[in-house]
Amino acid sequence: MAVVCVWSLLLLLFFGVLSNGISNNVNSSRPAIVNIGAVFTFDSTIGKASYVAIKQAVDDVNSNFSVLHGTKLHIEMRNSNCSGFHGIIGAVQFMEADTVAVIGPQSSEVANAMTIVANELQVPLLSFGATDPTLSSLQFPFLVRTTQSDLYQMTAVANIVQHYNWKQVIAIHIDDDYGRNGVAALNDALAARRCKISYKVGIPPGPGVSRGDIMDILVKLAVMDSRIVVLHVYPALGFTVFSVAQHLGMMTAGYVWIATDWLSSVLDSSQLSSEKMDLMQGVLVLRQHTPDSERKRTFISRWNNLTEGSVGLNSYALCAYDSVWLVAHAIDSFLNQGGIISFSSNSKLSSGGGNLHLEAMSIFDGGKHLLRNILQSDLIGLTGRIKFNTDRSLFHPAYDVINVIGTGFRHIGYWSNYSGLSTLPPETFYSNPANFSNGTQQLHSVIWPGNTATKPRGWVFPNYGKLLRIGVPDRVGYREFVSKSRGTNTFKGFCIDVFTAAVDLLPYAVPYEFISYGDSKQNPSYTGLVNEVATGFFDGAVGDIAIVTNRTKIVDFTQPFAASGLVVVAPFKKLNTGAWAFLRPFSPQLWGVTAAFFLVVGVVVWTLEHRINDEFRGPPKTQLITILWFSLSTLFFSHRENTVSSLGRLVLILWLFVVLIINSSYTASLTSILTVQQMYSPIDGIETLKKLQEPIGYQVGSFAYHYLVEIGIHESLLKPLGTPEQYSAQLELGPKNGGVAAVVDERPYIDLFLSSRCKFRVIGQEFTKAGWGFAFPRDSPLAVDLSTAILTLSENGDLQRIYDKWLSRSTCSLETAEIDSDRLHLQSFWGLFLICGIACFIALFIYFLQIMQRFRHSTPADLVSDGQANSHSKRIKILLSIIDEKEDPTKRQSKRRKTEMPVPEDNNASSELRSNAEPEIQRLDDIF
User: Fold this and answer.
1) Which listed residue, of 161, 357, 558, 665, carries a Cα 20 to 30 Å from 199's Cα?
2) How far apart are CA 862 and CA 882, in angstroms?
3) Residue pLDDT, tens place only, 38-83
4) Cα(640)–Cα(615) distance, rounded to whole angstroms?
5) What is the rounded CA–CA span in Å between residue 915 and residue 909?
6) What are the φ and ψ backbone dihedral angles of 406, each rounded to 5 degrees?
7) Dist CA 882 CA 857 (whole Å)
8) What residue range is the signal peptide (predicted)?
């Protein structure tokens, strides 16, 4: 703010001295001459070419009657010498000639000063070289940037960094508005891509910087880990940096130098010596993209004739040329719309006395109108389409990406805010939807510093003898994964071997030392270990560290080297088949429905067959027995009754098919129950644990505690355990005896635990999916390289061999259990034998009751006449004879006729009835 006030004061001072009452110029007719100005540095790389381009543009406009229709442009050019002070003087001098617009300034530093004049006097400034991103339209409404903002150039640099998977860059910049604000834009663009500026250094502007100062800066950079350097300075200083960098060996293989468009302007403007070109071999350079066109080629041909090769044509000169044409078209529209070029005094600038004569300062009355016409322009120039967005930036900003090789350079691609990086010109994509996907981002091959085509890694370990501090958990249990040798500072285990094997695959040396984390009394908190990495206390962490969401927010993990996930382990018991195992294949509901359908089908078939089938006729008792016998005998396909009706046969065939399926299913299920070992646990998984509200064990230091709390299990139910022995002891005790109902832990630990403890089993499935990885600070390139090495270990089989070395254990032998389960035992069938035995006993009991009843009704006369001994033997003989004798069927029929049929009144009716009943009686006799 103080600087602005000083420049304002100088502005008022010079206007008071140089202005002597500029009178109003009101002319209703189109003026013959319109005055414009230009302010830039004549002897700079950009200025030399811009001087010729602006003069040629004015001549071309004046010689083209269709532009201003007879009105001529008159231009006055002032040399700003890259000084804001000289820029203000030049702007004040223009006002003596009633200037309506100013081409320039070239420098961002000068633009910040001159915009004060432009805003106050309402004179549009068309800057073809001020790229400072902070020159916003809100603060400087009369500044129109006719070149690209460094906001887009730095986005292009960030895209290149992202394209090559680099994470950190070093920024060297000139310490003024141009340099500081450009690097600030670069930092924002990198941050949006999860990259960053690891170190930035500003070089003071002006001639006071010596080669020794540059060397001091680069020596500091040489010992840093990043090898990506972005150079955003002025040409003279840039060549000095390259010279010192080559002297220090910083232009060799492994380094990447990215120069902004200051270097492309030099390469386009002049033929550099071989010594200078040697300094920049392999450097990537950005240049404002200007589409190829016939008009551009014609102008380049004219340019060579104009300059005779003394000054090359750069992109800024093309922008300066187009700026003149832009002003000319805007003035023509202004005049066509009835605008009048006039100036008026500003009453606010009245000095109230003195020698400053501030009241004589004038304002361009049509300044806002002319500015509006400039911003609404849409024309084709040498740089392509000239159109402004709502933020006053040029339409479709784009850059060429070039690679310095030998005595020249070659294009390796393009960048635009529409299509990103590509090997085709940006204008070929404008007819298609914008696409920034990673698959479409590409560049041609690059020759990097050191004359190598291999993409640099972009970083190295700092060369100051410091070892990486790698934190390792000092475990108490499950020491197969990682353990510290007592009395030493050495570590071993599965995780340690994986890390060392991965480091050995890296194409560079990694100096490191393992630092123990924990008190050796219980497993340490792995979340605490990760936090130590995030705070910088450790440079990394190696161990069985689970990759979970909260940890990934503060550190970067490598590719997982072991799969993991939380599981539930609990005791189980063998489920014996038992005496009633034959009932288990069907549920009670299925048994009930099956039995009901047997009866239903029997009734349905009887109903369909009763009227037409003699086998389904007879007394009610007989028909009831027929129904039951028929329906139940279909279970074994042993029914003897024939079906006559078509409906009965249809029902029967469908029912027999159903019975076939039921029999097959029953047989298969019962076979499985009897021959396969059945396990049982009251816990089904994590949901069961939440409902049981019983103690649950977890491993000390594991993320399982926080997970269980988050899913709603109360902290009081969680019991910390540290070793496999504690797991086993607590599970055997059970919740009723002070133990735990189950243990929740990660799969690798549980697999090792169950390898020698066959009393427990994993219940359900894994309910989280995770993995183990090595932790490093955010954006650490070592995490990326180690991930590649871990993938290599997995592909070549080394990872599996390391796993087998540490974690392959003899599992519980199930052969004996399987043989035992294949052999059937009596206990699985005694229920069936019991049912059969009871049925046999009841049948025999009824039978002997019938025999004894016949024995009691036998004639006792024969028994009395004999003696007592003979009487007992006679009884036995009679009983045996009753048992052995064959019953006369006619007696059975006669007996049934007496009990089932009433006695007829006449013999003829009795004979007829008997003849009708005999077949039915005979059928019953056959059955019984």
Assistant:
1) 558
2) 15
3) 988 888 889 999 999 999 999 999 999 999 988 999 998 888 876 6
4) 9
5) 10
6) 60, -125
7) 11
8) 1-19
